[in-house]
From TrEMBL, chain A:
Family designation: Belongs to the amino acid-polyamine-organocation (APC) superfamily. Spore germination protein (SGP) (TC 2.A.3.9) family.
KW Magnesium (keyword) present: no
Organism: Psychrobacillus soli
Signal peptide: none
Biological processes, Gene Ontology terms: spore germination
Protein's name in the database: Spore gernimation protein
GO cellular component: membrane
Membrane spanning stretches: 12-34, 46-68, 88-108, 120-140, 146-167, 188-212, 224-244, 273-293, 309-328, 340-358
Chief location bin: membrane
UniProtKB/TrEMBL annotation, chain B:
Protein topology in the membrane: Multi-pass membrane protein
Protein name per UniProt: Spore germination protein
Region (Disordered): 483-505
UniProt record similarity statement: Belongs to the GerABKA family.
Transmembrane segments: 296-316, 367-386, 392-411, 423-447
Gene Ontology CC annotation, any one: plasma membrane
UniProtKB/TrEMBL annotation, chain C:
Species this chain originates from: Psychrobacillus soli
Gene3D superfamilies (alphabetical): Nutrient germinant receptor protein C, domain 3
Similarity comment: family membership: Belongs to the GerABKC lipoprotein family.
Name of the molecule in the record: Ger(X)C family spore germination protein
Membrane-traversing stretches: none
Keyword list, A-Z: Germination, Lipoprotein, Membrane, Palmitate, Signal
Annotated Gene Ontology cellular component terms: membrane
């Protein structure tokens, strides 16, 4: 099919790195406090919601890969242009770029909020956003290879945090999980929907797909990445549900960070202060990948150099962070973004798969005639 | 956005100087002597010696070996009769004898230590190479000493160095290409690599980079490294400088390329990944358990060296919450008299340590030791007593300085010490957030680098589990039979990993 | 490239100049290690803070400052006016409440401390018999830093499993749990020493009753488990098996250590509600008076049975006491909630049911070994 992307092997990445890209893109600021949001809907069955949300990501990723396989070597933007035609396709592309923009913004703003609440209440927002954006730009300008490298290291270097979560387990009681399935199915599903904000990120697959060298292995590594994310979220959810009592969990805004409060080493106490700062490494791939995805789209829609786009993008983000100041504003953005993201990430790909399959059938029939 | 300096891209201007070069030497003796004197600006050590019946010898006194000149040239010339320069060439008992009639060639030869033998009536001259190069004898490598292993280092002579390498690798596959760099110094440098192991593409890249250089002088290999490595502006070296022939040969045998520059005791090995700078040749000589331990020790030392002082500064300036209660009292009491904020205190102490190091490096060895004692004991104790610094910080700074010296590569050790300063300042302004900013920045920076096109963070990124067996840790030999994939070696296997264990009798 | 550098400098120079944050340099702040709250006059909060300061004379001294204001932050500001150094709360280890205040409501205090990110979740809460201010202001002969002393005292006893743990997290956890109430240790000044004297039982945020310190073993036994506790009891005359009654006419004191316990709680009847509480203890016999032959399995079994009986009786007593004051510090309600579907348990509802709760206690006590000398 037309406008597929041709790349030299030098720019391409191995499929197994997709594991890190997918997982790195999913885990970010959402993990700080997703327990509370889901708990409000699904109560102590929240872990079922997490499991369901994880399952949903697998299904959607399956659909995404199916769609991409029809085109061989093309990204979402190219598919849009091919399926809907140049004009409508570009409209969809712009929507997607905007989505990436908002996603970038919300990751950045949420992280700044965490920093300001936990450590530096008087550190200016503009300074935090400027420093984070600059580092993102520095990584972005290194190209995809560097961005994937950042995702790789962010995961490998953060793996040691996971076993630390066993420490709070000594205060946990398994009774908090029972009775299982007390909450009705509707609420659990609603909880799963609330996971959207936390679990998205794997849509980057639709953009990165043409850059993968061995496309036949994509499926395996994407699903492994999603599985690992689901496992991490599930584990944190279990620990939180048993560690916090029902009332305390609904009142704790960043439950994951508060979990760290009990962790202490002989040379260091209050691990959460370190964790909050260390989280910069974990959100960095988020930021880089969204910026990169937006940039790929912008290049498809209009003729613009990557450098120029990055500066415009960052400037808009920077100005945006200055305007959103209060916690309520941030929460509104998170909720609204979560709703929109649900449709863009969890509903739209299924629709797109149908459209592309129809189109494929149509064109192949035409060719036969 | 690649950092490139402009001088690399400048191509050598091709000036058509052919008619100048083709100047023919004069057959007349007086004209010949004058033309040589003019071309060399008649230096004081230019010797002109006339020999009967019609010979003239011209050479530069300090460049030739007197014994060779006397024994093999003058004696032979006196004892025989000659008609043409061709017969002279046969008579002289010297290996390297040429005949030329061009002035340019003659001048080059005389500067390289040849003796020009001119015969009245012929425009051809005989060029007999009796050059001698002043160089020190082979000594132990001063900067890269190791306990177990060879105790010989490169010296400043190109030919000695190459002979050292050839002694380690007795193979016809050892390729040796000579390139001259520097329009004025005409420094010769040799590219060495193993044919059949090293990747041709990398050899071409390296050759291209050296050929593209347009500089007037090249005095040391360290300068060459800065000119030809991938990112000149990065503080991190992307090619290894070593004065150990065994390390050099180890690199060659792993498929890397080596460059030896005349007049420099440091040889270049490339491509080199970041992690390999912290590996010592000695690791191969130790049992794998010990080697792994030493490597892990070294890596944790680097981590400590870079982040210990900043963490102290950050914790004391902003994050007093993270300090355990047991430390609280000693920490705050040791700082009670100190009038400065922790960041200034730390910078001051780091500055003193760097001063001591620099002073120790500049002074003769004997005085250098005194400086160490004076600095360590007198300044340290006095500073604590005067209340300028706290004694806990003194320990931390000394520890991180000590840790930075464990790096086997001195140049990398310098970088480790240097990058500590911005991190301390960042920690002083923004605490752990500042440290994390620096950490992310360094990580991204390292990821962006490459060494001769090979990834700098290999084998961690791109992840190659096979290569990781000999990186942060060292597994037993049967597990490390493969050459690192980042050098794109033609022949991947070093040896057959299926070791046949000798039967116990 | 030059443009990039230009931007970089442009952003960083003012960054360094105006992005500076307020510093909390360790030796220039006064670290609050302990705060005591008392009920003040006219709806105000009386706060007594123990603040550690460092002097240039290489000595750290401890100031005890008492202030009274509407909020705890207001008290901090007031205390700041009395001290040369900024007061920080990030190293706070203990919060004490006056008895009168605890009997009123602690909800507000738990919330304020949870809200502040710089306050650790692992600090200990305790109730003081009487008022906190006199306890903290008293000049103890051998105690240098009263804040640290009280922290060590509680920590040591919690670690040794002599006292129930009462970290902020656990208190808040129980407080916000529908089926459980919180309990805290009680401390008291005894001449020149500070002593743990009992356990304060809470119902919601209100302290409703106390238990003597000797009962803390039983409370802990039912509340959670032991990994290496110490326990001493007196076997009453009627429990002693006849074959052990060799010449002793009085009660029989025994002591155990290295106790490991496990509790299994089961809801058997949701309507009453009725629970089966099964406790399994394993211990090492440390002291027994008078001398009995521990080599005889029958004797050992006799002691085991006697101790089990004794434990059941004591535990029933403690549970009955807590039922009387409607304070479910053992978490029976949580078991009820997790066993009964759609119970929609609230604290009030549970407290009503708790009064009528029945517990069938079954204690299995095993003596694993005794010492090196029989």
């Amino acid at each position: 099919m037309k406008n597929s992307i041709q790349l030299s092997p030098k720019d391409m990445i191995n499929a197994y790195l997709l594991f890190f890209v997918i997982h790195g893109a999913q885990v970010g600021v959402g993990i700080h406090g997703f327990q509370r949001v889901i708990y409000q809907d699904a109560k102590h069955d929240a872990w079922i919601s997490v499991l369901l949300a994880g399952l949903a990501t697998h299904i959607i990723a399956f659909c995404m890969i199916k769609t991409l396989e029809i085109y061989g070597s093309n990204d979402l933007y190219g598919i849009h242009q091919d399926v809907y035609g140049k004009r409508i396709g570009n409209f969809f592309n712009i929507v997607y770029i905007l989505y990436c923009f908002v996603a970038f913004f919300s990751v950045l703003r949420n992280y700044i909020e965490v920093i300001q609440t936990w450590i530096f209440p008087d550190l200016a927002t503009w300074f935090l956003s400027a420093t984070l954006i600059l580092i993102t730009i520095y990584a972005f300008t290194g190209g995809l290879r560097v961005i994937v490298g950042v995702s790789f290291f962010s995961i490998v270097l953060a793996l040691w945090i996971l076993p630390l979560l066993f420490v709070p387990l000594k205060f946990s009681s398994i009774d908090s999980l029972f009775p299982i399935l007390e909450t009705n199915v509707g609420s659990i599903l609603k909880g799963a929907q609330s996971m959207t904000f936390t679990i998205i990120g794997f849509e980057i697959l639709q953009i990165i797909y043409p850059f993968v060298k061995d496309k036949e292995n994509v499926r395996k590594h994407v699903h492994l990445g999603l599985l690992f994310t689901t496992f991490v979220y599930l584990f944190i959810m279990f620990v939180s549900l048993t560690y916090y009592s029902e009332g305390k969990l609904t009142k704790t805004i960043w439950a994951t960070l508060s979990l760290f409060s009990f962790i202490s080493f002989p040379f260091m106490e209050r691990f959460e202060f370190v964790a909050v700062c260390f989280w910069m490494l974990i959100i960095l791939p988020n930021l880089c990948l969204y910026l990169w995805a937006a940039c790929r789209g912008a290049k498809r829609v209009v003729k613009i150099s990557g450098k120029k786009f990055v500066w415009i993008f960052s400037l808009l983000i920077f100005i945006g962070t200055l305007f959103v100041q209060s916690r309520t504003q941030i929460n509104t953005i998170n909720t609204q973004f979560g709703h929109i993201a649900f449709y863009i990430i969890f509903v739209y790909p299924i629709f797109l798969l149908f459209v592309t399959m129809l189109k494929k059938k149509y064109t192949s029939q035409k060719e036969q005639k | 956005m690649k950092f490139k300096l402009p001088f690399k891209k400048k191509q050598k201007p091709i000036v058509n100087t052919s008619h100048n070069n083709k100047e023919i030497l004069s057959p007349s003796k007086i004209d010949f002597i004058r033309s040589i004197k003019d071309a060399t600006h008649s230096p004081a050590d230019l010797m002109v010696k006339s020999m009967l019946p019609n010979l003239t010898l011209i050479y530069i006194n300090n460049l030739v070996n007197d014994k060779n000149l006397n024994d093999h040239i003058i004696t032979n010339l006196q004892n025989a009769t000659m008609e043409t320069p061709a017969t002279i060439k046969q008579i002289i008992a010297i290996a390297e004898v040429n005949i030329s009639s061009q002035l340019e060639e003659a001048i080059t030869a005389i500067i390289n230590g040849n003796v020009l033998i001119h015969m009245e009536g012929y425009s051809q001259v005989v060029l007999a190479n009796v050059s001698t190069r002043e160089s020190r004898s082979l000594t132990t490598p001063e900067n890269e000493s190791q306990v177990i292993g060879a105790q010989v280092g490169f010296n400043e002579s190109l030919s000695t160095n190459i002979s050292l390498v050839r002694r380690y690798i007795m193979s016809p596959d050892l390729c040796n290409e000579e390139i001259k760099v520097g329009t004025r110094t005409k420094t010769s440098l040799n590219i060495l690599y193993m044919n059949g192991i090293a990747s041709d593409q990398m050899v071409n890249t390296l050759r291209q980079r050296i050929n593209d250089l347009d500089v007037d002088a090249l005095l040391d290999s360290a300068v060459l490294v800065e000119m030809i490595d991938d990112n000149t502006l990065s503080p991190f070296p992307q090619m290894l400088l070593t004065e150990r022939p065994d390390r050099f040969c180890d690199g060659l045998l792993n498929g890397k390329l080596g460059v030896i520059v005349d007049g420099s005791s440091m040889a270049i090995v490339c491509p080199q990944s970041f992690i390999e700078f912290f590996e010592s040749r000695e690791d191969q000589n130790l049992r794998w358990q010990v080697a792994t331990f030493v490597r892990l020790l070294r890596f944790s030392a680097i981590f400590l060296s870079v982040f210990l002082t900043p963490i102290y500064v950050g914790a004391l300036t902003f994050h007093y919450e993270v300090i355990p209660q047991a430390f609280l009292v000693p920490l705050s009491e040791s700082r009670a008299l100190v009038p400065f904020p922790p960041v200034f205190e730390a910078l001051l102490l780091e500055f003193i340590i760097e001063l001591l190091r620099e002073a120790g490096a500049r002074l003769p060895t004997k005085i250098g030791q005194t400086i160490g004692i004076v600095g360590g004991i007198v300044i340290g104790t006095a500073a604590v007593q005067a209340g300028i610094t706290s004694n806990i910080l003194l320990i931390i700074v000394a520890l991180s300085a000590l840790a930075s010296f464990t790096t086997p590569s001195y140049i990398m050790g310098n970088v480790i010490r240097l990058i500590r300063f911005p991190i301390i300042i960042l920690a002083g302004f923004w605490g752990f957030y500042g440290i994390m900013l620096a950490f992310c920045f360094i990580l991204v920076h390292l990821l962006r680098q490459s060494s001769l096109g090979a990834p700098y963070m290999a084998p961690f990124y791109p992840p190659r589990f096979q290569d990781m067996r000999d990186s942060l840790i060292r597994l037993p030999l049967p597990y490390t039979a493969k050459r690192p994939s980042s050098v794109r070696a033609t022949d991947q296997e070093k040896y057959n990993p299926e070791v046949e264990h000798p039967k116990k009798s | 490239m030059k443009i990039f550098k230009f931007y970089f400098i442009l952003l960083f120079l003012p960054g360094i100049l105006s992005g500076c944050v307020e510093t909390n340099i360790l030796d220039r702040v006064g670290l609050t290690t302990l705060v005591g709250y008392d009920a003040g006059t006219e709806e105000k909060i009386a706060t007594t803070a123990v603040i550690r300061e460092v002097n240039p004379e290489f000595q750290s001294n401890v100031e005890v400052v008492t202030t009274e204001n509407e909020t705890s932050k207001g008290n901090r500001m007031k205390a700041n006016r009395k001290l040369s150094k900024k007061i920080m709360v990030g190293q706070m280890r203990v919060i004490l409440f006056g008895e009168e205040l605890a009997k009123d409501d602690l909800h507000f205090y738990i919330d304020t401390h949870l809200e502040n990110a710089s306050i650790s979740n692992s600090l200990y809460l305790a109730v003081v018999e009487g008022e906190t201010a006199p306890l903290l202001q008293y000049e103890y002969k051998n105690i240098d830093d009263i804040g640290q002393h009280i922290y060590r005292l509680i920590e040591q006893n919690v670690k040794q499993e002599h006292m129930i743990s009462s970290s902020l997290h656990e208190i808040a956890h129980d407080f916000y749990m529908e089926g459980k109430d919180s309990a805290m240790p009680i401390i008291k000044r005894e001449d020149d020493l500070i002593e743990l004297t009992g356990i304060a039982l809470f119902s919601g945020g209100k302290m409703v009753s106390t238990l003597p310190v000797e009962d803390s073993f039983y409370v802990k036994l039912v509340r959670d488990s032991f990994t290496s506790g110490i326990f001493e009891t007196i076997i009453q005359k009627e429990d002693i098996p006849p074959n052990l009654m060799t010449g002793t006419a009085s009660d029989m004191p025994v002591a155990f250590d290295a106790i490991r316990s496990k509790r299994v709680l089961k809801l058997v009847d949701p309507t009453t509600p009725e629970f089966d509480l099964q406790l399994k203890l394993k211990a090492r016999l440390l002291e027994v008076y008078p001398d009995v032959n521990l080599g005889d399995p029958k004797v050992v079994e006799g002691i085991e049975n006697a101790v089990s009986k004794n434990l059941s009786r004591e535990i029933s007593r403690v549970i009955a006491h807590s039922q009387n004051v409607q304070s479910d510090i053992f978490g029976f309600g949580e078991k009820y909630r997790s066993s009964v579907r759609n119970s929609n348990l609230t604290k009030e509802k549970w407290h009503e049911m708790y009064k009528n709760m029945k517990v069938n206690i079954k204690v299995e006590f095993d003596i694993l070994r005794d010492g090196v000398f029989e």
